UniProtKB/TrEMBL annotation, chains A, B:
It comes from the Bacteria. GO terms for biological process: response to stress. GO terms for molecular function: DNA-binding transcription factor activity. This is HTH marR-type domain-containing protein. It comes from Rhodoblastus sphagnicola. Residues 46-178 form the HTH marR-type domain. SUPFAM superfamilies: Winged helix' DNA-binding domain.
Amino acid sequence: MERGALEAKVVERKQRARRVGATGPQGGARALAAEEADLFDLGGLETTTGYVMRRAQMAIFGDFLARFAELDLKPAQFATLQLIAANPGQNQSAIGAALGILRPNFVALLDELERRGLARREKSDADRRSHAVTLTDAGQSLLQRARAAQAAQEQRIREILGEEARESLIALSTRLWRGLS
Amino acid sequence: MERGALEAKVVERKQRARRVGATGPQGGARALAAEEADLFDLGGLETTTGYVMRRAQMAIFGDFLARFAELDLKPAQFATLQLIAANPGQNQSAIGAALGILRPNFVALLDELERRGLARREKSDADRRSHAVTLTDAGQSLLQRARAAQAAQEQRIREILGEEARESLIALSTRLWRGLS
DNA sequence: TATTGTTATACTCTATAACTATA
DNA sequence: TATAGTTATAGAGTATAACAATA
């Protein structure tokens, strides 16, 4: 096969892949389309709480990534900005722990936010081992835009479920999380 | 520091790590304990559908891993066994697709189930490219035990939420997944 | 040409060990 | 000795490209 044809083929595959695996790279598996799953008998999985919640959660994740692509924010970054904004001056480890992020893994996440000028670490005077974390003005204003994007996602969910059911889903998820913790 | 003391310290750390990060290695982050998150103002995250669902889903995941450790089954393996049992003789790619697992990644998963004598691949006569997948007797009987473990988890959820709320959570998650697909 | 199964590979997220500087 | 932040590293899970066999 000659050069031109091969390259064309590669480009075509990339495009198809982009269409099919539309969720893109993240922590979870790609969002499962209902059309694919509906062709099969799920054999009980459809009444398994963990399975159906995972499926839904990954669909939300995929939707989130599309909405936040423009802001270049991943879910963990958005959550981090929210938590810093609500608890300015807290330790970096404390912020990470509240999000369930292990200390070593939180370093790079914060490095990136700092590199982008969104967050700031300052050595604490009281305990010079710890770093007090705050948002910069740029961080504040990006968070404003992120909150708008998040509100839009919540609105989409409201349109799918209705407001009462949406609140119910949040309440049930929270109760279950507490019960299992 | 001498040898003995260092080794003792290492062992101690391992034990602590096992206690704290009790969820073990998986696809998601470790389960977030309510006690840690409750120390902070979540800044709106607590009414964000995606965030609260992820938190709950990861708690279920952690509980699942503990229950299934004895059977040596991870969620994806359990789901695969369920789907094969309900759709015996299907293509390996079709089974994988119904679970949202990409074809290349499903190969190793099936390899492992086959290695353990739980599933079997057979070349199809109709289309000799494709592999029809079925469960072995050992696979069937492990699946029986796995279903019992799964029923126990569902019972735990029932105890936390009540049966009506549990069914509601499943229905809402499914509706949301379909709506976002 | 297209599809099934496969291999190889890269990237992200998560987990553990161990270091440093402070306490 | 213990803790906060860090580095290095290993392991899952997921994604893409490419190939052989078959259609």
